[in-house]
Write a structure and sequence with these properties.
single chain; about 300 residues; alpha/beta; Rossmann fold; seven-stranded mixed β-sheet; five-stranded parallel β-sheet; 8 helices; 14 strands; about 25% strand
C-alpha cells in the first residue's frame, strides 16, 4: 500500500499531490523545541507499506533537511517496506563542485546522508546539474517542470497576440552552465531540437556570494521576446542582468522562467522593479509572504508528482 506523508516545508504542495493522487496524507507529529531540536512521530501503522515523504529542502535548508532525515528514520523504525523521498527542491545542489581550494562539496555530503538514513528512492525537480545524479547509488529520478512552464508561457504569449516561433521568440541561457536546461525548455516550447539558443556570458565573483556580471550576449534577440530560463533564483541578480542585457541588445521584451524561487527577502521587489515583464515559476518551494509580487505567475507541480507516484 502507498502512503503519503508531508514534511512541514511545503504542506500546500503535499495537499495538492494527495488530492491529485486520491490519497490521504498520513498522520504524523512534528514538534519543535525551544532549543531548535525537532521530534518526529508517525501516527499510524506503516508496516510493509511503501511510504512517500514530500519535503522541499529550501530555506531554512538545514532545518528542513534534518526533518526529512528524521521522518525517514521514524518510518523505517515502524517497518515501512520502502521509503521514497520526493524533494521538489534539492537544497545544496548548487554546491556540487569545489570552486576554490579548501571548500567542501556540500551536494555530495547531502547525498551520503540521504542514502545512509535509508531512503529507497529519491525524486526531485530540475536538479542544478544533472551530473549530481551520478553521485547517488540508490535509484534517483530528476523530474522536470520545464514542459509545464513552456506550456504556460506559450499561452501567455498567444494571449498577447505573439506567434510562438523562432522569428518572434528567443530562448536565452543566463550562463554557460544552463545551456542544456534552456535547450530543454526550447524543445518543449517549439516542439523541435532545431532552434537557435542565445547565451549570456557571465562572470561570477567567487569571493562574494550572489555577485555576478553579464559580460556579453551570443545569439540573436533583436526584435524578439527573450525568454531567460534558469533553475533557481535567490538574489535575482543573474536574471535581472540577463534580461537587461537582452533589452539593451534590442529584445522586444524579456520574460523570466525559473523552476525554483528560493528568494532572499528583497528579491521580489528587485524583480518587480526590473525590466523583466513576467516571472514564471513553480510551487516546488512554498510561497512566503515576501515572495509574492505582481509579475509572478506560479504553476503547480502537484499533478506531475501525483502521476509519478501512482505509476510507481
Amino acid at each position: 500500500m502507498l502512503k503519503l506523508f508531508s514534511g512541514t516545508s511545503n504542506p500546500n504542495l503535499s495537499k495538492k499531490v494527495a488530492e491529485s493522487a486520491n490519497l490521504t496524507l498520513g498522520k504524523m507529529e512534528v514538534v519543535r523545541f525551544e532549543n531548535s531540536e525537532v521530534r518526529v512521530r508517525i501516527g499510524e501503522d506503516v508496516r510493509n507499506d511503501v511510504c512517500v515523504i514530500i519535503q522541499s529542502t529550501a530555506n531554512p535548508t538545514d532545518t528542513n533537511l534534518m526533518e526529512l532525515f528524521l521522518i525517514c528514520d521514524a518510518l523505517r523504525r515502524q517497518e515501512a517496506k520502502k521509503v521514497i523521498g520526493v524533494i521538489p527542491y534539492f537544497g545544496y545542489a548548487r554546491q556540487d563542485i569545489q570552486h576554490r581550494p579548501g571548500e567542501c562539496i556540500s551536494a555530495s555530503v547531502i547525498v551520503k546522508f540521504i542514502e545512509s538514513i535509508g531512503f529507497h528512492k529519491v525524486y526531485t525537480f530540475d536538479l542544478h546539474d544533472e551530473a549530481t545524479e551520478g553521485v547517488f547509488t540508490i535509484p534517483f529520478k530528476n523530474l522536470s517542470a520545464l514542459p509545464l512552464l513552456a506550456k504556460e508561457v506559450t499561452t501567455y504569449l498567444q494571449k498577447q497576440g505573439i506567434t510562438v516561433d523562432q522569428k518572434s521568440v528567443a530562448i536565452v541561457s543566463p550562463d554557460q552552465g544552463g545551456i542544456e536546461r534552456a535547450r530543454k525548455f526550447g524543445e518543449a516550447m517549439f516542439g523541435t531540437r532545431e532552434f537557435d539558443l542565445a547565451l549570456i556570458e557571465k562572470r561570477r565573483d567567487l569571493a562574494h556570494i550572489h555577485e555576478s556580471t553579464a559580460l556579453a550576449l551570443y545569439g540573436d534577440v533583436k526584435g524578439k521576446v527573450a525568454i531567460v530560463v534558469d533553475d533557481v533564483a535567490t538574489s535575482g541578480r543573474t536574471l535581472i542582468h540577463a534580461a537587461e542585457h537582452c533589452v539593451q541588445q534590442g529584445a522586444k521584451s524579456a520574460i523570466a522562467v525559473v523552476v525554483h524561487r528560493d528568494f532572499a527577502k528583497d528579491t521580489a521587489k528587485k524583480i518587480q522593479e526590473s525590466s523583466i515583464e513576467a516571472f514564471f515559476t513553480t510551487d516546488t518551494i512554498a510561497m512566503k509572504e515576501y515572495y509574492s509580487f505582481e509579475k509572478m505567475k506560479e504553476i503547480s507541480v502537484g499533478q506531475t508528482i501525483a502521476e509519478t507516484l501512482t505509476s510507481y
